[in-house]
Write a structure and sequence with these properties.
Elements: E1 2-6, H1 11-23, E2 28-31, H2 39-44, E3 52-55, E4 58-60, H3 63-73, H4 85-110, H5 120-137, H6 151-166, H7 168-172, H8 177-188, H9 190-196
Length: 198
C-alpha cells in the first residue's frame, strides 16, 4: 500500500502529487490539516511537514525525492530528459535555485509584514531575477528545457504560481509573457486540475 500525506495548497505537496499522478502510481492520498497533523504521519516522519510518502514501510519525506521515486516507476514523457545529460544538469541547477533561493524571496514577498527590514517591492524584485531567467529560457522551448514538460517545470510551477498569486494584477502586466503562458498551460492542464480537487 502506497500512502501520501499531503496538504493540497502546499507547493511541495503539489509537485509530489503531480509527479505521482503523471507516473500512474496507485496511491492513497490523505489530506492533512496542518493544525492537526495525524499521528500516523508523525510516526513516519518526525519532521512533521508534508508531503510524506509511505511505500510499504519505506518513508520518503522530501518532495523532490518523491517525484524522482515516482518517475523511476514510470516516466512516459521523459520528464527526466534521460538522453540529454546537459539538460539534466540544468534541471538540477534550476530546482536548487528554486528551492534554495527563489523560495526564500517568495516567502519574504508573500509575508512581507513579517520582514519589515525591506519593503514588499524589494522582495518582489529579488524574486523577479529568477522569473526573468525562466522567461529567457522559455524563448528557446515551449517548456524550460524541452518542448514538453520535464521534472524542472513541474518542480518549479507551484512556486511560480504562488509568486504570481500574491498580486495577480501586477503579474498580469509584467513583461514575462512566455512565463505567464507557461503557467496558464499548467493551471489549465488535467495534471494540475486533477490534483487540486478536494
Amino acid at each position: 500500500m502506497t500512502t501520501l500525506y499531503s496538504f493540497r495548497r502546499c507547493p511541495y505537496a503539489m509537485r509530489a502529487r503531480m509527479a505521482l499522478h503523471y507516473s500512474g502510481v496507485e496511491v492513497q492520498v490523505v489530506e492533512v490539516s496542518l493544525k492537526a497533523k495525524p499521528a500516523q504521519m508523525l510516526a513516519l516522519s518526525s519532521k512533521g511537514t508534508v508531503p510524506v510518502l509511505d511505500v510499504d514501510g519505506r518513508v520518503i519525506d522530501e518532495s523532490l525525492e518523491i517525484m524522482r521515486w515516482a518517475l523511476a516507476q514510470n516516466d512516459p514523457q521523459d520528464w527526466l530528459l534521460k538522453d540529454d545529460s546537459f539538460a539534466a544538469l540544468w534541471m538540477d541547477k534550476l530546482i536548487v535555485g528554486n528551492d534554495q533561493v527563489f523560495k526564500v524571496h517568495l516567502n519574504h514577498y508573500k509575508y512581507a509584514e513579517r520582514y519589515p527590514e525591506q519593503p514588499m517591492e524589494f522582495y518582489r524584485a529579488e524574486g523577479e531575477k529568477f522569473l526573468s531567467q525562466l522567461e529567457e529560457m522559455l524563448g528557446r522551448n515551449d517548456y524550460l528545457l524541452a518542448n514538453h514538460p520535464c521534472l524542472a517545470d513541474v518542480a518549479l510551477m507551484p512556486f511560480v504560481r504562488q509568486f504570481a498569486h500574491v498580486d495577480r494584477e501586477w503579474f498580469a502586466q509584467t513583461p514575462y509573457v512566455r512565463l505567464q503562458a507557461w503557467l496558464q498551460r499548467f493551471i489549465d492542464s488535467e495534471l494540475f486540475t486533477a490534483n487540486m480537487k478536494k
